[in-house]
């Protein structure tokens, strides 16, 4: 973008491009929209960004974003401390929580292994996970709930090996035909897995 | 999105959705990215938003975004005050400036007429334009440089009628074949206009 009549506007368009997926054109469109129609929204966003950047850390136990040393889920005494479900992101954790079917603890990796993108074990929460697995109270089963993508599978493999090396049981979410789907429309790999994992 | 372990995070995801084109999923992705990888970017964006929302107003003469009462372009005494080029947005103005072929003044509508979306003359800068056309020093020619879209053409029509009603000359940017293009690949409407406007 050519510099505009306002340095503050230029700086805003620049700063908006720090957001993932936002290029020069959409940053410019966002800035115009906020200044022309929603200055209140701009100020609210400014406050929310500052509050989040300054007040959010990682939970000491599960590594998810938290405002406290230990997040509410980890602090809940009614949850089974022997079960540790390993997920990639807080959004994945939220999806599992919505099922209401799990009452153990979580560990949030905040990413997945992706060697092709240079994302190795040190870039995601493998080190704090290792500490977590060796801490008290003891974990009896690690449930690998990373995504069923190539990278999620690779991550599950590495975390599973790690858990087994520490003498812990490691299980993986079952693959299979989604509830409510017709076989005709399910991809062949999924059907093959559903056949192999039949029970 | 389900509420997360952090109210600050929830508030940030909400606030990011005030940006045009950003839904719940991408707001969430943006928030994670900033918190996980770019807190510095989050703070810079917060400051840029606040500085822009509090320090940017409209130039009293051309209506574009400006930090001063009158923007640098309008304050430049070397520019011809008799020529007034009417554009839709600051980005359009910047495109014209990059050509280096225009040394008159501008008026930035900050939008375009779009009756189907309920955007009438009062929603864009038609009222300040009317004042501008009647102010001193006098304008001798209004150059209609709105986009060559249906809405831009309708806007040019309305602004042109307005200028002519005030006894001013109103011209439109020429339509024609883009420089460097092969006729074979140019759309027929453009070729028809280029034929009609041949010189
Ligand atoms: Zn936690
Ligand atoms: Zn101006």
TrEMBL record, chains A, B:
Gene3D superfamilies: 3.40.1360.10, 6.10.250.240, RecR Domain 1. The keyword Transit peptide does not apply. It comes from the Bacteria. Residues 82-178 form the Toprim domain. CDD domains: TOPRIM_recR. InterPro entries: DNA_Rcmb_RecR (IPR000093), Rcmb_RecR (IPR023627), Rcmb_RecR_Znf (IPR015967), TOPRIM_dom (IPR006171), TOPRIM_RecR (IPR034137). It holds the Pfam family RecR_C. GO terms for biological process: DNA recombination; DNA repair. A zinc finger (C4-type) spans 59-74. The keyword Acyltransferase does not apply. SUPFAM superfamilies: Recombination protein RecR. GO terms for molecular function: DNA binding; zinc ion binding. Keywords: DNA damage, DNA recombination, DNA repair, Metal-binding, Zinc, Zinc-finger. May play a role in DNA repair. It seems to be involved in an RecBC-independent recombinational process of DNA repair. It may act with RecF and RecO. Belongs to the RecR family. This is Recombination protein RecR. It comes from Tepidimonas fonticaldi.
């Amino acid at each position: 973008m050519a510099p505009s009549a306002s340095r503050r506007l230029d700086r805003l368009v620049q700063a908006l491009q720090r957001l993932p997926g936002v290029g020069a054109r959409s940053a410019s469109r966002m800035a115009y929209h906020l200044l022309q129609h929603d200055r209140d929204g701009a100020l609210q966003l400014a406050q929310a960004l500052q509050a989040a950047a300054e007040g959010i850390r990682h939970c000491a136990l599960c590594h998810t974003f938290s405002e406290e040393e230990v997040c509410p889920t980890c602090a809940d005494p009614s949850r089974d401390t022997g079960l540790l479900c390993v997920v990639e992101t807080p959004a994945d954790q939220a999806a599992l929580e919505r099922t209401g079917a799990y009452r153990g603890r979580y560990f949030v990796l905040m990413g997945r292994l992706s060697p092709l993108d240079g994302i190795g074990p040190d870039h995601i929460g493998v080190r704090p996970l290792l500490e977590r697995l060796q801490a008290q109270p003891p974990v009896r089963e690690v449930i690998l709930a990373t995504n069923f993508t190539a990278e999620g599978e690779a991550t599950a493999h590495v975390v599973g090996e790690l858990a087994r090396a520490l003498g812990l049981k490691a299980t993986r979410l079952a693959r299979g035909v989604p509830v409510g789907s017709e076989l005709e429309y399910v991809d062949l790999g999924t059907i093959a897995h559903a056949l192999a994992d039949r029970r």
